[in-house]
Amino acid sequence: MKNSREPKNTPFEINGITVQPGTRAKVELPLAQLYTQTPLNVPIHVIHGRKPGPVFMVSAAIHGDELNGVEIIRRLLRHSALKNLSGTVLAVPVVNVFGFIHKSRYLPDRRDLNRCFPGSETGSLGARMAWQFKTQVLDRVSYAVDLHTGAIHRDNLPQIRANLSNEDTGAMANAFGVPVVINSVLGEGTLREVAEAQGIPVITYEAGEALRFDESCIRAGVKGVLNVMHHLGMTGSRRTKAPREPYIARSSSWVRAERDGVFLSLVALGAWIKSGDLIGRISSPFGGDDVDIISPASGILVGRNNLPLVNEGEALYHIARFEEVSEVAESLEVFTSDIEDGPTQSGQLPIV
Ligand SMILES: [Zn+2]
Q1: 201, 219, 249, 333: which could join 169 in a potential S-S bond, CB 3.0 to 4.6 Å?
Q2: Among residues 134, 164, 127, which one has the least CA distance to residue 57?
Q3: Phi, psi dihedrals of residue 32, rounded to the nearest 5°
Q4: What is the whole-number distance in angstroms between the Cα of residue 120 and the centre of ligand 1?
Q5: pLDDT tens across 297-335, in order?
Q6: Which stretch is the leader sequence (predicted)?
C-alpha cells in the first residue's frame, strides 16, 4: 500500500535513448573516431531508479592510463545497493577512450583531456571531445565523483581532492570516507573546475598508480562512491557503519630530487614523517657518495615516486601537513586494516 503513494520517476533520455524507471541501459556516446574511421564510442551505463532523485555521475580514465577507477565502476555496477535506487547513476568507466587504448594519459595529439573543458565544437580534438562530453553528459548531472590515480610511476595514498569552499562539495568529500582530504581549487580546463563553475559539486578520488590495479584503492573507492550515493539519499539503509570524519590537509608540497641518480625510498605511503627525518637516498649506480634526502616538512606521505631512476628536480614525495597529524596517522591505520580485512565489494575475488 505504502509503495503506491511513493512518487514515481519519469523516463530518462540520453543520446536519443529512453531509459524507463527501474531499468538500466548502456548508451554508446559517439565522441570520436579512429583514423580508420572506426567509431570510438564512450559507453555510459545508465541506472535509472524507480524513485526520483539526483543524477549522479561517476567517471574514470579521463586520463586514459588511470585504471583503478575502471575497476571501481565495474564493481559498483554489480553492487546490490544499485537495485533500489532513487535517482539516476551515469557511470562512465572510460572517458578518454583514445588514451585508454594506447595505455596513455593523453589524447593522440598529446593534449590532456582534463585540461580541455569546457571545450568547443570547432576546437582541437580534445576541445571537441570535452564539448561533446560536457553538453551530452555533464550538463545533465547534479553531482559527480571523478576517479583518478597518480601519474605513471607515481603512487597516491587514497585521498579526496575537492573545492571545500563549496559546502555541498565539502559534504560529499566528508561522506566519501577516506581519512585524507586535500582542499584544492583546480587549474583551468579540468572537468571538476568547469562543473563547479556551473554549480555541480564534484570531488576527485585519487588513489594508486597509473597502469596498475591496487586492491585496497579499489575497495576504498567502491565503498566511497556508495557512501556518497547514500549521503545524497540515492540508496537505502547502509549495511556498514558510517565512515569517520576525514582530516583536511592544511597544505601540501613536493620534495624534489637534489641530484640525478638512483632513488631509494625509506618511507611508505601513509607514513607519518617529521621534519628532519631521513626519508630516502639518491645513490650512483657506479659508486660514489650517497646523498641523503631529509624531509623539510612534517606530515603524512600522500604521494610517492616509484621509479628508482630520477633526474634532478623530479618530484619524489608529496607530503600533506595537518593540524592533528597524530590523529590522521591513527585514523589511517584503522582505515587501512578495515579496508584490507573488509569485503572486496560485489563478491569479487581480490586482485593480488
Ligand atoms: Zn588523473
Answers
A1: 201
A2: 134
A3: -160, 175
A4: 22
A5: 999 999 999 999 999 999 999 999 999 999 999 999 999
A6: none
